[in-house]
Design brief:
The protein is mainly α and 168 residues long. The protein contains 7 helices and no strands. The protein has helices spanning 5-20, 23-38, 51-68, 79-103, 107-118, 124-131, 136-166. The longest helix has 31 residues, at 136-166. The radius of gyration is 20 Å and the shape is globular.
Amino acid sequence: MKKKNHQIFSEYAVNIFSFLSSTFFWIISISTLIAIFLSFTKARNYEGAGASKIGSVFIYILVTTIGMKMDLKLIFENTGLIIIGFIWMTIHAVLMITIAKLIKAPYFFLAIGSQANVGGAASAPIVAASFHPSLATVGVLLAVFGYAVGTMSAILCTILMEIASNSV
């Protein structure tokens, strides 16, 4: 039996409200907006005071914290997800290499862009700094831009998937 339009709309409203009331969503969104705002102020001039070294320490702490929450024993419980992940990463690699060749981008942009898409702000600056320390900011910019665009795109995709699943 098909649902009426007002029932579907009320379900969307509840789902969107529950997402927007998530503490994690607001922590990420507000900290991203503050960082973008500060990049337009004199705070960007603190590089000489060692801001990137302190930032690198916090990035390593973030990566370590994420890793500590992982349970490696769960990998063997659902091997189908590992296969899906392998297929997903293969498609990602093919797309990234194809686009990099089409636009003739240097390979460090390929590596940093890929890590910004997959690992985000936690690991893109680390990959960028491995090429040259001054490229860490490129990694941060790509990851923050990815977060800003990706968060809104994810919300839109969620809404579109709900519409598609309810109209079938």
